[in-house]
Every structure is written in structure tokens, then in C-alpha cells.
Design brief:
The chain has four helices and seven strands; from the N terminus they run βαβββαβββαα. By secondary structure, it is α+β, with helices and mostly antiparallel strands. The protein has one domain: 7,8-Dihydro-6-hydroxymethylpterin-pyrophosphokinase HPPK (Alpha-Beta Plaits), CATH 3.30.70. The strands form two sheets. Strands 1, 2, 3, 4 and 5 form a five-stranded antiparallel beta sheet that branches. A hairpin with a 4-residue loop joins strand 6 and strand 7. The protein starts with a strand and ends in a 5-residue tail after the last helix.
């Protein structure tokens, strides 16, 4: 059965496809099944990285169960030259499953919805532009409502 997934994409390092925006566009092609894409947004880094990020979100259609899609996304990251290392460091590409039309998923290697997406402006900005009415299955709030709550808080990076 085909499911919809929302994937967050980010890059702040040049790779084999070019600058960060080029890396995000190439990753969308590698993922395939893209139904819709948010505008790309430039965001400040969190943590030790000094380079700004290009962030976007995409809705994809896939017959893969969540764990298989995660495995494929991690393989794409590796193919793009992503190396695991310092948390919040520079990266050629970062691909995260944020939401799933199946609602909630949790196992030893994956949790959907992404546990931190509600607190990340760099994720909620693209999501709000793309799927403002998608409801978070944990809180029942729409992406628009989550983004509004976040912007009412003290400014974050």
C-alpha cells in the first residue's frame, strides 16, 4: 500500500552536485516519488557549524515501510558523501522522515513523527509552506499551529 511521507532535507556544505541548494535538488531526484516540495529556505546553523543551511521539505509517495525508507535515505546520504560525526556539524545532505500518513511509528531505530520537529524552526518553516493543515498525530495540532506556537516563543536559530 502506498503511503505519504514528509521528508526534511538540509545541506550546508558543497558536494559533488554543487552548493547546498544543488545538493538538496539532487537529493530530491535520488529519493524519487516526490509529490510536492516546499520552497528552499536559508536558515542559521544550530551548534558548532558556522555555515548557513538550505532547508526544504518534500512529500513523497512510497510503498516502503518506514524502516525500509529510512535505510534507503541513509544510503542516499552516504552516496552524497555524508559522514557521521559531530552532532549539528556541517553536512552535504541530511534526510529525515518527519511525518507519515500512517501516523505513529516507533522501533529501535526510527520514531515518527520525528521527536524534535515541533521545536525546530528550520523544519517547521518549510513544512508550514508545504503542508500547513497536516496534523501531528501526537498533539492533534496542525503544522501551521505548531509553527505559530514556535514563533511566539523566544527567537531560535
Amino acid at each position: 500500500m502506498t503511503s505519504s511521507y514528509v521528508i526534511a532535507l538540509g545541506s550546508n556544505r558543497r558536494g559533488c552536485y554543487g552548493g547546498p541548494a544543488d545538493e538538496v535538488r539532487a537529493a530530491l531526484g535520488a529519493i524519487g516519488g516526490v509529490v510536492a516540495v516546499s520552497p528552499m529556505m536559508i536558515t542559521a546553523p544550530i551548534g558548532p557549524s558556522s555555515r548557513r543551511f538550505v532547508n526544504a521539505a518534500a512529500v513523497i509517495a512510497s510503498d516502503e515501510p518506514p524502516r525500509d525508507l529510512l535505510r534507503r535515505l541513509k544510503a542516499i546520504e552516504a552516496d552524497f558523501g555524508r559522514r557521521r560525526g559531530r552532532r549539528w556539524g556541517e553536512r552535504v545532505i541530511d534526510l529525515d522522515i518527519v511525518l507519515w500518513s500512517g501516523g505513529i511509528w516507533a522501533d529501535d531505530c526510527l520514531t515518527i513523527p520525528h521527536p524534535s520537529f515541533r521545536d525546530r524552526r528550520f523544519v517547521l518553516g518549510p513544512l508550514a509552506a508545504l503542508i500547513p493543515d497536516w496534523r501531528d498525530p501526537m498533539t492533534g495540532l496542525t503544522v501551521r499551529q505548531l509553527a505559530a506556537r514556535l514563533t511566539r516563543r523566544a527567537p531560535l536559530a
